[in-house]
Amino acid sequence: MLYSILRWRCISSQKKLKHLKPKIKAMGKDKLGELTTKAREAFAQLCQCQKYTMTNPSPGATRKEVVAYARWSHVSALEREVFEAEIKATPVKDWRWQQ
Predict the structure, then answer these.
(1) Rounded to 10 degrees, what is the CA torsion of 10, 86, 26, 20?
(2) 35-93: per-residue pLDDT in tens?
(3) Which of 89-95's residues contact partners 24+ apart within 8 Å by CB, and which partners?
(4) Which of 2, 22, 52, 65 is most buried, judged by most C-beta within 10 A?
């Protein structure tokens, strides 16, 4: 009796998690979608700020450069984490066994 109750709870929890999985994936794509493009844009903005700071050094230009660097650093770290997770998730096929 106790076993059947525990088993039913486990099955119901699995069903709830299965229903949540697509929603969580969609939310992740909304929040983290196009990371490569965002990283390129942030890097271009950082380069632009650095060039401006080199030609016209001022406290305001330096602040803009610091903000651009922080944004680029954050986006590139997220991109790296996503790529590492994708690499861990994809199975590696051994070419020696594909004959």
Answers:
(1) 0
(2) 888 899 999 999 999 999 999 999 999 999 999 999 999 999 988 988 887 777 666 56
(3) none
(4) 65
Segments making up each domain of the chain, as ranges? 33-90
Q: How many CB atoms lie within 10 A of CB 73?
A: 12
The letter for the amino acid at 2 is L
Q: How crowded is residue 79: how many other Cβ atoms within 10 Å of its Cβ? A: 18
Q: How far is residue 77's CA from residue 80's CA, in Å, rounded to a whole number?
A: 5
Q: For 49-59, what is each residue's pLDDT tens digit? A: 999 999 999 99
Supply 82's token pair. 């996503």
